[in-house]
Amino acid sequence: MDTHNPDLAGTTGQTKIYERVVERIRELLESGEIKPGDKLPPERKLAEVFKVSRSSLREAIRALQENGVLESRRGDGTYVSLPPGGDLLAPFAEVMTQQRVRLWQLFQFRQAIEPQIARLAAESRTQGHLEALRQLLSMQEMECEGDENTGYADLHFHQLIAMATGNPLFLDVVTRAESKLAETRNQSLQSEERRIASLQAHRRILEAIEAGDPDTAELTMREHLSEVQGLVFDGDS
């Protein structure tokens, strides 16, 4: 396998990182550089070759396994399982479609639950919760001013709002949902303009929670999620 591949993580545009990995594997199959029956290099090596995180690589491999392109053999490794002479394009198109459907379902889930969580947080938050949210906003401001975007403040802002409801079940479901959005969070916050938009939305949400205004907290969270969803799916159609 050619180890001088382009840096997939640095590619511009709306394509998600795992989709770029899927596309690169498709290109390697089409070119004959890897063939059905071949064993892929170890995960660490592949991540280095594609210049992506191992979590992004795992997501791409998992999607390709589900569609029969790759096969994981316990204790042995990952193999190309596409039959010789088979249709190369159909399984890859199916991978992209399924991933977008799952992502849309995840946003649908968040829209159904997180505005209500913000409402409850406005009713139940403590001064300790408010202080922690202010600290996260300060951290997000520093990320906006610098070049580094870890997504840490954004992730924990939503988790802390769930914690402020006083119901640990909300924190559990938000944490599970947010962990699945790690790559899309980085994608949706990739530009300075978008990072600032997210920060401003978080400020409005916090202001409503601080004021103990459940109606506004619910509305601003709903608007924020709609905006993020638009950023993530922009250019996919």
Automatic annotation (TrEMBL):
Residues 174-209 form a coiled coil. Residues 15-83 form the HTH gntR-type domain. CDD domains: WHTH_GntR. InterPro entries: GntR_C, TF_FadR/GntR_C, Tscrpt_reg_HTH_GntR, WH-like_DNA-bd_sf, WH_DNA-bd_sf. It holds the Pfam family GntR. Keywords: Coiled coil, DNA-binding, Transcription, Transcription regulation. GO terms for molecular function: DNA binding; DNA-binding transcription factor activity. PANTHER family: TRANSCRIPTIONAL REGULATOR, GNTR FAMILY, UXU OPERON TRANSCRIPTIONAL REGULATOR. This is GntR family transcriptional regulator. It comes from Desulfovibrio psychrotolerans.
